[in-house]
Amino acid sequence: MASSTKSSLAGHPSRGGALRLYGPGSMDHVDPVAVAVGRKIIADEADLSWASPVTEPYDANPTDPGNDLGYALNPYVVFNTVSPNNGGAPARPKVRRALAYAVDKMAILDIYDDLAAGTVMRPARSAIPPGNDGYVPFDLYPTPGDRGDPDQCRRLPAEAGYPDGLTLTILHRDVDANPDVAKSLARDLERAGITVDFRPLGHAHYYAYLQDPAHAEAGSWDLSAPSWTPDWFGDNGRSFLQPMFQTNRNRGTSNYGCYSNPEVDRLIEEALATTDHERAYRAWHEIDVLVMRDAAIVPVLEHAPTIPHLKGKRVRNAIPMPTIDRWFDLSNLWLEETP
């Protein structure tokens, strides 16, 4: 088993004294260490974990452990809009709209919920989740209970000229929940008469592969399920929608499916150029509506980028920071001695 280490940070006497940190001496076996650290914090022998995150125990998903900072798309389905496969079927909005109806979002939520990570999750219905500029609730592809509608999915491809169905390749990471997410998507599509092939990649190569348009243009994949978390929340269109949907077929792009719509590009430039926040907000929302009408992606889950880390009884003002993997801001918390 990995060893554990205890350390402390000196504090001002009026703010509760030294902060007691407890964590792994090595990272060979994270789970046993996390359990041990959690016991120390619960026993009031430590204030916070160090290096090995310890999730606060919960019976149901917390309402919002991240102070309502905002939400990421994790995951979302991106379509390869330049794929030559099936006679270029993924390039046709009507085909993509059909696939949007197929996805059982609750099944994928269950996959992540079984990980017991403590993150807030709920079905996503637009490209912009709450906490990001341009968010206005709407749903162009409603299905009963967010469970998918295979009949609707089966009907639309036939109307688009594919009465015998399609064969699509899912590119997915081969670690964590990703294989199960890919299998869930495959089951959804197969219920609608679509054949699915799998293309697994290691995590280290996955995003680099998606960011090379040559792979998309060659038809190496037709759909995938990445995630997208903005660098900050609020006024963040340049960090959220712009990289995802502005025309960019250069290597390193974050527009993985090579989606392109001149009106979307125009509105992005308008939103970035204006100093009127309300006007920019409206423009980002208009982009969201256009992207969803084109079914460039299928938003699957709104995922809070923070988890409720376990903290000791003395800890006050522990604010999680999504940009540093959900750890608390140590510069602003303090300790209050308990009776």
UniProtKB/TrEMBL annotation:
Do you know which Gene3D superfamilies this protein is assigned to?
Answer: Dipeptide-binding Protein, Domain 3 (3.10.105.10), Periplasmic binding protein-like II (3.40.190.10)
Superkingdom in the source lineage: Bacteria
Position of the signal peptide: none
Q: Which GO terms describe its biological process?
A: peptide transport
Show the GO MF annotations.
peptide transmembrane transporter activity
Pfam families according to UniProt: SBP_bac_5 (PF00496)
Specify the Solute-binding protein family domain's residue ranges: 72-247
Name this polypeptide is given: ABC-type transport system substrate-binding protein
SUPFAM superfamilies per UniProt: Periplasmic binding protein-like II (SSF53850)
**InterPro entries xrefs:** SBP_5 (IPR039424), SBP_5_dom (IPR000914)
